[in-house]
Amino acid sequence: MSAAALAVAAGSMVACSSSGDVRESGEGDQTPSLPAGLKNDLMRLTESKHVLGCSVSAVTRERTVYADGWGVARAGQPMTALSTINIGSVSKTITATAVLQLVAAGRIGLDTDVNDVLAESKAYGPRSVRSPYYPDIPITIRHLLAHLTPLTTGPELGPYGYAPRTGPAPDSGELGRWLHDFLTPAPRGWTYNREENFTKSKPGQVHMYSDIGFDVAGFLVHAVTGQPFADYCREHVLRPAGMVNSDFDRDRIPDGRRAYPHAWFENGVKKGMWLDYRNLIPAGIADDYTGHAEYSPYASCLTPDGGLRSNSLDLARWARLWLGGGVLDGVEVLPRVQASAALADQVSPEIMASSEAPLPFISQGYAWHRLRGDADGQWQHAGSEVGTASYVKIDTVRGVGAAIVMNTEVAIDADPRPQMLKQLMDAAASH
């Protein structure tokens, strides 16, 4: 079924153009807003953490129960359920889906050596992904999707590094060029650093959350299909899922839909989990400034690990797709075998017990994971970028899920999202 036909079948009021661009519409008008009491509770939570704009959704397998927004998306524009911003690491669940589609089609295997894929590729990029400490041990597709690689983000390298930058969005070939230089020993790879780009862990033996592992996974989509990563995901994942207001290409999001990232400052000190990228603030701020600062829109070529632009309405569809075992409104985006595997333990308890992830992981699927305190059947993924925060969580036992999109970053030790997710999912379950 085409994306346009899917939009009609799903009762959506949004369609794609033939080029895949997002088009303006009034989608969301048919989705009920939050009950007043619940909305007030959630607003108090976000305001207490200085979140400027927030949107949320709550779903069952059958439908989006609620979608709503409050606060400011950017100067002069309210935050709504269609306000679209970069959602950070929730993007990894889309990247994993793209790779698992190729597994389902028999084009790659989960235990395929990444180097075997790269050897057949015509796309410019790395030709080898191996630990310098274990050069004879393959890094596999499974390792990438389950955070079992020794790949780290490396040192900060300014405009060519991991840091976000303003200006034109990177072209579709920059991901491959970046990974080539990061993973190829000198003199051909000028950002290669044996000590800082890799840990000394043996591939497959240590669970360590890896952004770069998912950037490699995204590049493999290009290497296998010949389509740039963003184009493949738009055609084969996002549009079939009815996520017609989401894209890895920042420039395809209409300006009127864009929310801007923000940070809260107290006496000149930025709060939140990211570094102080003050260069992203167009007018600058005083050294003793207290208040919100609006960042300019920024981009990075490393989109597979965190570069999707999305909103709470589209993420509601994403949650429903996973509650449906890879199927949404009669359209199969991912075969049930692969969807079930993504929401299952893929790392041994012994390895998980000594996980080096930054959060208390207790179970790792493919991208999706479970944290301490999650009930059986609950799977989740949080996201954070400079000036943004997001979250998607599903409960496959109760058949409910929720999504959150914020245009202000929050601190790990002052994060309102877990409590918000619980209230949203309880509301969906009781609806």
Task: Describe the protein's architecture and organization.
By secondary structure, this protein is of the alpha+beta class. It has two domains: 3-86 and 253-430, 3-Layer(aba) Sandwich (Beta-lactamase); 93-232, 3-Layer(aba) Sandwich (Beta-lactamase), CATH 3.40.710.10. The chain has 13 helices and 15 strands. The strands form five sheets. Strands 3-2-1-15-14-13 form a six-stranded antiparallel sheet, with helices on both faces. Strands 6-5-7 form a three-stranded antiparallel sheet, with no helix packed on it. The protein has a two-stranded antiparallel sheet with strand order 4-8. Strand 1 and strand 2 form a beta hairpin. Mean pLDDT is 91; it is low at 1-28.
Topology record:
Blueprint: H1 3-9, H2 36-48, E1 53-60, E2 64-74, E3 77-78, E4 85-86, H3 91-104, H4 114-119, H5 141-145, H6 174-183, H7 194-197, H8 211-225, H9 229-238, E5 262-266, E6 269-270, E7 291-294, E8 309-310, H10 312-323, E9 327-328, E10 331-332, H11 336-342, H12 349-353, E11 361-364, E12 369-371, E13 378-385, E14 388-395, E15 400-406, H13 417-430
Antiparallel strand pairs: 1-2, 1-15, 2-3, 4-8, 5-6, 5-7, 9-10, 11-12, 13-14, 14-15
Task: Give the low-confidence spans.
Answer: 1-28
Q: Roughly how many Å apart are the termini?
A: 31 Å
Helical proportion, percent range:
25-40%
Proportion of beta-strand residues: 15-25%
Total DSSP E strands: 15
Number of helical regions = 13
Instruction: Give the neighbour order of strands across the main sheet.
Output: 3-2-1-15-14-13
CATH topology of the largest domain: Beta-lactamase
Domain module tally: 2
Going by helix content, strand content and strand pairing, the class is alpha+beta
Rounded mean pLDDT is 91
Under the CATH scheme, which class of the largest domain? Alpha Beta
Largest beta sheet, briefly?
6 strands, antiparallel
- Considering the protein shown, what is the CATH homologous superfamily of the largest domain? DD-peptidase/beta-lactamase superfamily
Shape: globular
The H-and-E topology, N to C, reads as HHEEEEHHHHHHHEEEEHEEHHEEEEEH
Rounded to an integer in angstroms, the radius of gyration calculated over CA atoms is: 20 Å
Give me the CATH architecture of the largest domain, please.
3-Layer(aba) Sandwich
